[in-house]
Amino acid sequence: MSSNFIKNISKEEYKDAFRLAIQSALAGAICYYLMVLLGISERFVGVLSAILVIEPSIGNTFQQAKGRILSTIVGIIIGFVFVALIPWELGVILSLLLSLFIINGIASFRPEWRYGVVAAVALALGSEGDAYDLALNRLLSIGFGVAIGILISLIAWPDTSENRTLRYIRKALKNTCDRFRIEFDNTRDKENKNTTKANNNFSTNINQAKNNAASITFNDKQKIMELIESTERLYNSITIIQRVADKSNSNITNGEAGIEKNSEKVTEKACEIIEAFSKKEKVTKEDLSKFSELINTTKSNIQIKVDDRELSLLRNTFMFGLTEIEDSIQQLYENFKEQ
User: What are the sequence ranges of the domains in the chain?
Assistant: First the structure.
């Protein structure tokens, strides 16, 4: 089972793991060294903060830092109030009860807040005599650790949320192309091939793109979201082709060479453009014009009347799907031009 687990890890995941390992190791070691050098106490929570604030992207790191500092302040305030004002044992119990209840409740919706319990528990289990100093020292150490973590994420092999989002979008486009080829073949065969793998991979990659886009801090998030929407629209356009494949029991071209040849050219040109997007290769207006010409030629052939009403309906639906794909590719072209 362990060998299968390792085989299922992608190169991108290995790269992320290696980056996080390097950044975390540097953050922890540098934070400890500087705290010793500067005489800052509470080194445990400082080093812990520096390590735990590190995330795969700079945007995620900033979000984690904001949440952890806010949760730390809340935890320290709650802990300080109860420990300082209420007799020691009862104060500890109430401090733990309330701070853990509030912070973990918020952490159900904002996971980065869970780190606040470290400060609250650490303060509650200190002595009532030095509650004020302990609170300030812990807050200083945590803030220092977070600052070191952010600094390391900026200078040691940095990766932005925008770049990560674009990588997942390109992977999703590759999955879209794979699905399109299969569904097109299915419109001409009695036995339909399975697209589960392509569908699952698309869902995984587009969801990762959305998650990373949510963490974009410094760049234009709206343009990235439009790119995600265009990718989803293209993928959903292929669902029309799938419906045709599901309904047709044989080749929708019915052996007519013109329709079959033109539809093949349209599909190959569409996949050529989509794969160019996925590989960061240049797509020109000439590519789009040639694709539109192929669409129009195929449309002219398909609009020739046939006696079989169901076949005619399937062909027109197929053509509608290709038109939707054309519009989606045009929108993707405009979106990528703005990146």
Answer: 2-155, 161-337
Question: In the 8-state DSSP scheme, what is residue 86?
Answer: S
226 φ, ψ (degrees, to nearest 5) = -65, -35
What does the alpha-carbon distance between residue 77 and residue 102 come to, in Å, rounded to a whole number?
Answer: 12
Structure confidence by residue, pLDDT tens digits, 136-145: 888 888 889 9
Q: Which residue has the higher pLDDT, 263 or 275?
A: 275
Topology annotation, domain 161-337? Methane Monooxygenase Hydroxylase; Chain G, domain 1 (1.20.58)
Name the token pair of 9.
Answer: 């890890």
Report yes or no: 253 and 260 within 8 Å, Cβ to Cβ: yes
Cα 224 off chain centre by: 11
Contact 80, 125 (CB under 8 A): no
In angstroms, the CA 24 to CA 232 distance is 35
Show the CA angle centred on residue 178, arms to residues 177 and 183, nearest 5°: 95
CA distances from 4 to 1, 18, 187, 198 (A): 5, 20, 35, 20
pTM (2 decimals)?
A: 0.80
DSSP 193: P
Model confidence at 1, pLDDT cuts 50, 70, 90, reads: very low
